[in-house]
Design a protein that fits this description.
mainly alpha, 15 helices, globular
Length: 395
């Protein structure tokens, strides 16, 4: 295989991985908008969930780690096209700020159809954007030291789990941004930090360093991907089995029939060491597998993977808009859907009692959404390939 062919396989495999997790991601977001249980409890609540609902949520855990890690890889490849560290820093800062702005405006409106009502959620674009801004400072550190520091943060950050924001008084909001999911007030607004910065910035920095492996000859990089992937999977089972360190939620058999679910119920907010081993390990294995596959430009994985931000924004609006005809059919009205959903921090009393739909409906709507997005993303992917307008680089 020529160097050019190897590079094409390398890049398309990353696109395919990203496209795969974007399809999976839409399942969880559909659940949040549509499923009846999403309005009243989390699928990880072992006292109320069931196996199908739990794993409907669990399978989507791979999404955020892959998004953040491949964002770091993307930064590495962006610099590899003859750009300087200063240029990369400027790109990361501007891109990161843009993602934060989108999260506070376009994504907020997609989730709630309001800029004023409901909780202000700092979600995954916030975490990616803030991590990019920090990475813009870290890229000047030698790669081996940056990789070692990133691994250290991922492995050791759970040592700080016992430090809680309420012990910091006025500065509690800082710790919530850094390492503890929680809410705080900014004037009259209630802000929910859904994605604390740590360890996501370390995951992105590690992705940047991992570019050194992804430029190796195909067979050699696949060996590394398989070794690292299986090593992380094994480390997850060993560490989780020991049940002493790696996650603030130890597994137990306290809830009858839920021991297996308890074992796989790892903490995402903030992402624990166990959570990252459980998700990034399989992601590396899938990436190694995709690295052997010849994908066409029309393959849905490639189409979605090449326009991740466009897909992310549009899919939220499509899902939310679909709830209106569904509401008309089932409830004979839909005006109540202009209020934030209970699953998005809205007031349950503004919705019909027991609002929502069964799980099979979630899967049906998910398939519909992905099918609707394919032609849109195929068109936009072609537009980005044909034209170099500055605004296209922001989507």
């Amino acid at each position: 295989m020529s160097t050019a062919e190897g590079a094409k396989y390398r890049l398309t495999s990353i696109d395919a991985l990203r496209g795969m997790v974007m399809i999976i991601m839409a399942l969880d977001h559909t659940r949040e908008f549509v499923h009846a249980s999403a309005m009243v409890f989390q699928p990880e609540d072992l006292t109320r969930t069931n196996a199908i609902l739990f794993f409907t949520r669990w399978v989507t855990h791979i999404c955020a780690p892959v998004f953040v890690f491949t964002a770091g890889l993307g930064a590495y490849f962006w610099k590899s096209h003859g750009r300087s560290s200063a240029q990369l820093s400027k790109f990361l800062w501007s891109r990161g700020l843009w993602l934060i702005i989108l999260d506070l405006t376009v994504i907020r409106f997609a989730l709630t159809f309001s800029m004023m009502n409901g909780v202000l959620i700092l979600s995954v674009l916030w975490a990616i954007g803030l991590s990019m801004i920090v990475l813009g400072l870290l890229i000047r550190i030698p790669t081996r030291w940056l990789a070692a520091g990133s691994i250290a943060v991922i492995v050791l950050h759970n040592l700080t789990d016992r430090l809680t924001a309420d012990r910091l008084g006025f500065a509690s909001w800082v710790w919530k941004i850094l390492h503890e999911q929680g809410v705080f007030n900014v004037g009259p607004a209630l802000v929910l930090v859904a994605y604390p910065l740590v360890p996501w910035v370390a995951v992105m920095a590690l992705g940047f360093c991992f570019g050194e492996i992804m430029i190796l000859p195909p067979e050699e990089r696949r060996k590394w991907l398989f070794r690292i992937g299986w090593g992380m999977v094994a480390a997850f089972f060993v560490l989780r089995g020991i049940n002493v360190y790696g996650d603030p939620q130890p597994w137990s058999n306290a809830v009858p029939g839920m021991t297996l679910l308890s074992f796989f119920r790892c903490t995402k907010y903030p992402a624990s060491l166990d959570f990252l081993l459980m998700t990034l390990g399989p992601a590396f294995l899938v990436l190694a597998w995709f690295d052997r596959v010849k994908f066409t430009d029309c393959n849905p994985l490639i189409v979605f993977g090449r326009v991740p931000l466009f897909y992310f924004i549009v899919h939220l609006y499509v899902i939310h808009l679909l709830t209106f005809p569904m509401g008309l059919v089932r409830y004979g009205k839909a005006a109540f859907l202009m209020n934030p959903l209970p699953s998005m921090g809205g007031q349950a009393e503004l919705y019909p009692a027991q609002y929502g739909y069964p799980l099979w409906t979630v899967y049906a709507v998910w398939v519909t959404v992905v099918a609707m997005l394919y032609p849109l993303c195929l068109w936009f992917s072609g537009l980005k390939a044909r034209r170099k307008d500055w605004w296209l680089s922001y989507l």
